Automatic annotation (TrEMBL):
Its cofactor is pyridoxal 5'-phosphate. InterPro entries: Ala_racemase/Decarboxylase_C, DCO2ase_PEP1, De-COase2_C, De-COase2_CS, De-COase2_N, Orn/DAP/Arg_de-COase, PLP-binding_barrel. It comes from the Bacteria. Belongs to the Orn/Lys/Arg decarboxylase class-II family. This is Pyridoxal-dependent decarboxylase, exosortase A system-associated.
Length: 417
């Protein structure tokens, strides 16, 4: 055996979280030092979403994508009314997935003409609400059609419909199964001609197609390929449609870097690809607007989750920073929201973010379960009780996607700063 020291393999790093600057050693969120922001919020844990970053992201997308492409915000990523209100002013439309979300979007001032409503298992009452509101309904089942026709007749209003297609392909590299399999979403391409004919017979107002092939993708070429295939499929299906296509929603799937080794998505090739599709659509579907719908890409990087350290323990050499919130507010960062292998979100000690004094430590929440883990043996600034642990990339699928009542700890608050 050799006595030469064994150097640990350098682990891949998280992408730099440069969207939040560091001043006087502290993280700046919404233009304010984190410790002061915590004072002004008045409690931990909290989520903070930075307005200027939301605006910058929308501007970046407008810059990179053709101006003819409509940008929609899928509000399930972050349904905080203040966020939805801000987003409504930045995008061309809001995508909702329930009547509850529809209410929030309407309250926020979103234009009903530019709202679309997708989701399996829409209840009759939700379909009625959507017709009354005048929003576009993405039909996901033949069962919805007669309900919509009856609502339309009773109210004397058009039932605006697009058809959500369950394509025979999937977005590669999304962590989703490839090849067109059975799904609870959308309608299989095989039965679409018949469904489109039924839409015509029932005199529903057909407006287009909706395809959503996957989520959280960081590979531009996969996204371009899915957009091309979606376009081709919609073009074929348009031959069977009872009216010209007005909206062709090509889905989204744009990802953000969460885990070590992941790099931000390159928008340039996607912009070029869409430019080509915009050109084709002008010839082949002249009344159609192309729509891209994004949730996490709009809001994910603009948010942080902030939790205060209430205890510092050492167990058999490993440092545990026990915080006042965890899985109950941020299920995704704990690794329990669809991750197959748990990996750390980028994190720091926000009031000491600039500190050179670092150590490997785990940040855990207060719940009586080992699943309540925010950072597993990460290199972090040395922290004491009272310091503020921060989880980055927390603007999407955070509070609303977490089991707040589990174990009865206080709820977190959310601020738009
Ligand atoms: C969830 C969802 C989105 C948003 O997905 P992100 O990964 O957050 O961009 C878009 N469209 C549909 C139909 C969805 O269900």
């Amino acid at each position: 055996m050799s006595d030469a020291p064994v150097f640990p393999k350098r682990a891949p790093a998280h992408a730099a979280m440069t969207q939040f600057p560091i001043r006087d050693g502290e993280l700046i969120v919404g233009g304010q030092k984190l410790s002061l922001l915590a004072e002004r919020v008045g409690q931990t844990p909290f989520y903070a979403y930075d307005r200027s970053l939301l605006r910058a992201r929308a501007a970046q997308l407008r810059d990179a994508l053709p101006k003819q492409v409509k940008l929609h915000y899928a509000m399930k990523a972050n349904p905080l009314p203040a966020v939805v209100g801000l987003m409504a002013g930045l995008v061309d439309g809001i995508d909702v997935a329930s009547a509850g979300e529809l209410q929030v979007a309407l309250n926020a001032g979103a234009d009903p003409a530019e709202i679309s409503f997708a989701g399996p298992g829409k209840r009759d009452i939700e379909l009625n609400q959507a017709v009354a509101a005048g929003v576009l309904i993405n039909v996901e089942s033949p069962r919805e059609l007669p309900v919509l026709a009856a609502a339309s007749q009773r109210m004397g209003l058009p039932a605006r419909v697009a058809v959500r297609v369950n394509p025979d392909f999937e977005l590669k590299g999304s962590g989703m199964k490839m090849g067109g399999g059975p799904k609870q979403f959308g309608i299989d391409t095989e039965v679409l001609p018949e469904l489109l004919a039924e839409i015509g017979r029932l005199s529903l107002a057909f407006e287009g197609f909706h395809l959503f092939a996957g989520s959280q993708n960081l590979r531009a070429e996969s996204i371009c390929e899915a957009q091309q295939k979606s376009y081709e499929l919609a073009l074929r299906l348009a031959q069977h449609a009872p009216a010209p296509v007005k909206f062709l929603n090509l889905g989204g799937g744009f990802g953000i870097p969460y885990f070590p080794g992941e790099q931000p998505l390159d928008l340039a090739p996607i912009g070029e690809n869409l430019q080509q599709l915009v050109g084709r659509a002008a010839q082949e579907m002249p009344q159609a607007s192309l729509v891209i719908e994004l949730g996490r890409y709009f809001v994910g990087e603009a948010g942080v989750y902030v939790t205060r350290i209430v205890d510092r323990k050492v167990s058999r050499g490993q440092v545990y920073l026990v915080a006042d919130g965890g899985l109950n507010h941020h299920l995704a960062a704990s690794g329990n929201f669809g991750q197959v292998v748990r990996k750390n979100y980028p994190a720091t000690i926000g009031n000491k973010a600039g500190s050179a004094e670092r150590e490997p430590a785990s940040v855990v929440g207060p719940l009586c379960t080992p699943l309540d883990l925010l950072a597993d043996r990460m290199e972090l600034p040395v922290a004491e009780v009272g310091d503020l642990a921060v989880v980055f990339q927390s603007g999407a699928y955070g509070r609303s996607a977490s089991p707040q009542d589990f174990l009865g700890h206080p709820h977190c608050v959310e601020v738009l700063v």
